[in-house]
Specification:
By secondary structure, the protein is mainly β. A seven-stranded parallel β-sheet has the order 8-9-7-10-11-12-13, sandwiched between helices. Helix 1 packs antiparallel against helix 3, helix 9 runs parallel beside helix 12 (about 445-460) and helix 10 (about 335-345) runs parallel beside helix 11.
Length: about 1150
């Protein structure tokens, strides 16, 4: 009955609470639920987008409220851990998308589910104590060194206070205004100098220790007539504390340090021998010592002023500067250090120094450390120098450099291998004379912050050796070398982190080290890719000097819907400090969804250790797993790549290479392993942006690369890297050259355009064709399209200019009928040619973008068919075209500076799902290919948002896309089988890398637009065929054209002309001249034809190699060569 009542009360409280919970300090994307005590969940299935438990109403509720993660709140809890009806193992954290659902609604819904005992918010937990010092907000450095976190190790609510007045910190400086309202209560009192006759009377709380407050309380008169009774009255000759006796006499000289109740002034007034027992700084001297003292040990949590890292500590004032001396000099620093050590200081701060070292000073410091057991801390100096500075560079001194809020070296701070640690030293707020406060900067400020941290550390570990205290402080510092690449190894072990230092003696410090994967269904690239699974083993490291970690366990989770974890628990055994352990053989099992975008996925590892000790340890580690579609050995670093690339076997070794230009002024030819082929890269003398064109321009059986440069030269580069300039243009050559056999002699002629209005057509040796070069009406920065636009049997050269014209030039130098077309603005998007309307008259339509913010379509007569407008931004990328869905109609893809990717059909009508938005302007021209061989092509295009997009016909993302890069992607992609493994790769240049993505499926490119300008000859023409197809009107002679692509794998197109009705045979011959296949043997009528060969002979795939194709008729035999790659 009692149990029933308790359950009822809990349920009632849960329902009431859920109705109107306080959400002001709650997370907005998660709640906590506890399942009923009679429910046990064996596993939570997280493979889908919504977790599944098998609890019908609960699962339906998670589906309704779009819960994407369900994880144990206490991973190490068992079903035996219970408080009443609350079983700790039944408490779960549910994560939701706060953009879709309110947290209040989720709480209300789950609290009503019969499976749920209660539902409640998960609250944000922060450090639970902040001192009430009024100027705390100006002390940014306390947060930087994690002092506020460190103080939370003490139970302040129960009266525990950090630090200890038994820890003595000496300010060996210009003196201290120890009467300062924020310092006097923390001022050290020499117990041996309190006269024995009055000690018990002064010690009002009878704890055997006289503090500064008790000294002032005992005083009855204002002996120095300052208007108030304060600590300085205690050292007045008339004070009851002054008995003219050296009470401690630790130097066996009863007249040397008489009545040093509050510290000592070894310097006195002048450079003569006039030390005294009053270390109070005067108003005419520097504020330096008082500022330092405030950082060392200002009274914390006293309702005024500032706080100090030590929180509670005793400040020993040592005045080592003459009253009448230069306020910038510390004259008796070493005597001051020695006094402090002999008087019992634990830590001595020395915010002064200079260059030059000697034996006496080092010996003094050694005695201070070895004989008297004091730690010396010193400023590294403010000369922005790498020269050693003393005393900070001496052995047995902790040397401190200064840093900024961003953990950068302060501009003034010295740096040296002798520096031990760094601390904040810019705009540091502390106490000054006359009860004031100011902000100073310098290593003088950084040093006492470190000294104060050592004091706090010693208060927690009072029996620890000085060596342990120093090493612990140094080992726990936050690394800052990455912020200071010019000063690596010269700013010490890092920036002070006092919280880590304190924890080092209580807890282990486990951190993520690395992970390894054993892939379960690898596609062969050895990388974790979409659609694959793996056993993951995570290495953990326990930092040196920290507590050993015992019985370490881990629970792995991931918030991404694309990552499923079927085995989330791992065990590590014990991890001793300074060691690494791996979750072996107990690994974690993960899988990646097939549609997962490529990139880094954050994994969360909840690690527990020392559960059976007084100080159980839990930490939450994050690391990222790379889900990659990168080709092995890629990406590779590069200067900016603005053009497209060619994937072809340039050197004839049977393997493809990537040919591209970059802003490093080089033409590159890169193997599939990322290395350059022999003879490459080739120097082009100036920036190169043009897409390389590749073809056998001289018909010698070897491929050449044709490329222009901003040095005004047009180069022909042989397969061995030999380069020759064949033409010097009057302006920059930014566009790809076009290659075309205009005269049918087997050689390819070269068409080039330049920034200074020139259209040139030449043979491969640079000899110009008649009527060329010619000067047009404006700059040309994009390439030409080559094709017979009107089906009259003559080839046209179609170009757009900055003179707002679209030209269609005949080989005789005249314009085609209807041209040039006058446009509204300049053309910076290269025209392409395609049979948009499906006509059989041989005519081709012209597509191009324009600075009038439109994609235009013109017919062969110069008439505009349609246009598509972008959102008030220019179109500078080239369009691409293909029959993406196999319905016989063409689709056109283009990107704009308005950050949109457009897709329209052959009539200019937007396809459903388009345009697709990106995060940056688009200069990249699309590649189109069927990467998975499903009969539907995909589009790939880069953007200046650093993403490469892969899009389906409906505008949705291809699985694994978009792929993120570190730089913008302005280059135009190529889709090809780079490595000969029968699946496709996507190759694209970016502002910082050459990217190659491995697509783990077979696909087809020949029927589409797989590279910039459609083909390696960069002619900008789409000739889509199925089987044998008539191309255009009646030819005048038999012709056999170069196949495309060539080399190819596995498909190529062969075009030929038949001038008369005759029997035609088209045969395939091997390299020995033997007929190995016949594609056509039939009577054919006069016409122009094209067919596609699928690379098969007698129903089987042909071997890789060189083949010939021979066209035979009654009066003619024509032969050409082609290369099949594998």
């Amino acid at each position: 009955m009692k149990k029933y009542l308790l359950t009822s009360l809990l349920l009632m409280a849960s329902l009431v609470y859920a109705a109107s919970p306080d959400l002001s300090n709650a997370f907005e994307d998660r709640i906590l639920i506890c399942l009923q005590p009679d429910i046990t969940i064996e596993t939570v299935n997280s493979q889908g987008r919504v977790p599944v438990t098998g609890l019908e109403s609960f699962d339906a509720l998670m589906q309704l409220r779009e819960v994407h993660s369900m994880e144990p709140f206490l991973p190490s809890a068992t079903y035996d851990d219970m408080d009443g009806d609350v079983i700790l193992a039944n408490i779960y954290r549910l994560k939701i998308d706060k953009a879709h659902t309110s947290i209040a609604q989720v709480l209300s819904d789950f609290s009503k589910d019969a499976n749920v005992l209660y539902a409640e918010p998960e609250y944000i937990r922060k450090s639970n104590y902040t001192p009430n010092d009024t100027r705390l907000g100006q002390q940014w450095f306390l947060t930087q060194v994690s002092a506020l976190q460190a103080w939370d190790l003490w139970n302040l609510a129960a009266g525990q206070e950090p630090g200890s007045h038994s820890v003595v910190l000496a300010s060996n400086d210009s003196g201290v205004q120890y009467t300062h309202a924020d310092l006097w209560k923390s001022t050290w009192v020499n117990q041996a100098e309190v006269p024995a006759a009055i000690f018990n009377a002064v010690d009002s709380n009878q704890d055997g220790y006289v503090n500064a407050e008790e000294v002032v309380a005992y005083l009855l008169d204002d002996y120095n007539s300052s208007g108030t009774i304060n600590l300085q009255d205690a050292v007045h000759p008339s004070s009851p504390f002054m008995d003219n006796i050296d009470g401690d006499d630790w130097d066996s000289n009863p007249v040397t340090y008489v009545d040093d109740l509050l510290g000592w002034d070894p310097a006195g007034v002048t450079s003569g021998n006039d030390p005294d027992n009053d270390p109070l700084t005067s108003g005419t001297m520097s504020d330096h010592g008082t500022h330092v003292a405030g950082l060392l040990g200002a009274t914390t949590d006293n309702g005024i002023g500032i706080a100090s890292v030590v929180f509670n500590g005793s400040i020993m004032a040592v005045k080592s500067q003459y009253d009448e001396g230069d306020p910038n000099f510390i004259s008796l620093g070493y005597p001051g250090m020695l006094y402090a050590a002999k008087a019992g200081a634990d830590i001595i701060n020395n915010s002064w120094g200079g260059t030059g070292a000697n034996t006496s000073e080092q010996a003094t410091i050694n005695v201070i450390a070895d004989t008297y057991g004091a730690i010396s801390v010193a400023a590294a100096g403010n000369d922005n120098s790498g020269e050693d500075h003393y005393p900070s560079a001496y052995h047995n001194v902790v040397s401190v450099a200064a840093t900024t809020t961003g953990d950068n070296k302060a501009s003034f701070s010295n740096y040296s291998p002798s520096v031990d640690i760094s601390a904040p030293g810019v705009n540091i707020h502390s106490t000054v004379f006359n009860n004031g406060y100011q902000s100073f900067g310098g290593t003088s400020m950084a040093s006492p912050i470190v000294a104060s941290g050592l004091g706090l550390l010693k208060s927690l570990y009072p029996e620890a050796s000085n060596t342990w205290l120093i090493q612990t402080l140094l080992n726990s510092a936050d690394p800052i070398d990455e912020n200071n690449p010019d000063f690596v190894g010269q700013l010490g072990s890092g920036r002070l982190n006092i919280n880590s230092a304190l924890l080092q003696g209580i807890y282990p410090r486990l951190s993520y080290s690395s992970y390894s994967l054993s892939l379960s269904n690898d596609n062969g690239d050895g990388l974790l890719s979409p659609g694959e699974g793996a056993t993951m083993r995570v290495n953990l490291f326990n930092d040196p000097g920290w507590v050993d970690a015992l019985d370490v366990t881990g629970v792995l989770s991931c918030d991404s819907e694309y990552i499923s974890i079927t085995d989330s628990t791992g065990s590590y055994g014990n991890i001793n400090n300074g060691n690494i352990a791996v979750s072996y053989p107990d690994g974690y099992t993960i899988s990646v969804a097939e549609d997962a975008p490529s990139g880094l996925y954050q994994m969360n590892l909840m690690v527990s250790a020392n559960a059976a000790s007084e100080n159980p340890y839990d930490t939450y580690l994050e690391f990222s797993v790379d889900v990659s579609i990168w080709q092995v050995n890629f990406p590779i670093s590069s200067s900016t790549i603005k053009g497209g690339n060619a994937v072809v076997d340039l050197d004839g070794d049977g393997s493809n290479e990537i040919i591209y230009t970059a802003h490093d002024s080089l033409l590159h030819a890169v193997n599939a392993d990322g290395s350059e082929i022999a003879g490459f890269p080739v120097m082009l003398n100036y920036l190169a942006e043009a897409t390389p064109s590749v073809g056998d321009v001289d018909n010698d059986g070897d491929l050449e690369v044709v490329v222009g440069s901003l040095d005004l030269n047009l180069y022909v580069v042989q397969h061995d890297g030999t380069a020759e300039s064949i033409h010097v243009a009057p302006g920059f050559m930014l566009a790809p050259a076009s290659l075309y056999d205009f005269d049918g002699d087997g050689d390819l002629e070269i068409v080039s355009v330049s920034y200074n209005d020139e259209l040139a057509v030449m043979h491969h040796d640079g000899t110009a064709l008649p009527n060329f070069p010619m000067t047009l009406d404006g700059n040309m920065t994009v390439g030409a399209a080559i094709g017979d636009i009107d089906g009259d049997g003559s080839v046209n050269i179609v170009v757009g200019t900055w003179g707002d014209r679209l030209h269609a030039i005949n080989l005789d130098g005249t314009e085609a009928a209807g041209f040039p077309v006058v446009l509204a603005d300049r053309v910076r998007s290269a025209p392409i040619l395609a049979n948009l309307d499906g006509s059989t008259d041989g005519s081709l339509e012209i597509l191009f973008g324009c600075d009038d913010n439109k994609l235009h379509a013109y017919d062969s007569g110069g008439n505009e068919l349609w246009y598509v407008s972008s959102a008030s931004q220019n179109i500078q990328a080239d369009p691409s075209v293909a029959d993406m869905d196999g319905d016989g109609d063409l689709e056109i893809i283009i990107g704009g500076l308005d950050r949109l990717i457009y897709a329209v059909d052959h009539t200019g009508t937007f396809l459903e799902g388009w345009p697709v938005g990106t995060g940056g302007a688009i200069y990249s021209s699309p590649a189109i290919a069927d990467i998975d061989d499903d009969g539907f092509a995909e589009v790939f295009i880069g953007s200046n948002d650093r993403l490469l997009y892969g899009l389906n016909l409906d505008g949705s993302n291809v699985g694994g896309f978009p792929v993120e890069n570190t730089g913008n992607i302005q280059g135009s992609p190529t889709v090809a089988d780079l490595d000969g493994d029968s699946d496709l790769e996507i190759i694209v240049g970016a502002d910082d890398k050459l990217l190659v993505m491995d697509i783990s499926s077979n696909g087809e490119t020949a029927s589409y637009w797989p590279t910039h300008r459609g083909n390696l000859h960069r002619t900008g023409v789409l000739l889509t065929t199925v089987g044998v197809e008539e191309r255009r009107g009646l030819p005048m002679s038999h012709k056999l054209y170069a196949n495309y692509p060539n080399p190819f794998n596995p498909t190529t197109s062969i075009a030929f002309d038949i001038a008369e009705d005759t029997h035609v045979s088209l045969q395939i011959l091997d390299i020995r001249g033997r007929v190995v296949g016949e594609l056509i043997s039939a009577p054919m009528t006069s016409g122009s034809y094209r067919l596609k060969w699928n690379g098969e002979l007698r129903g089987r795939p042909a071997d890789a190699g060189i083949y010939f194709y021979r066209l035979s008729s009654q009066n003619s035999i024509l032969v050409r060569k082609m290369t099949l790659l594998k």
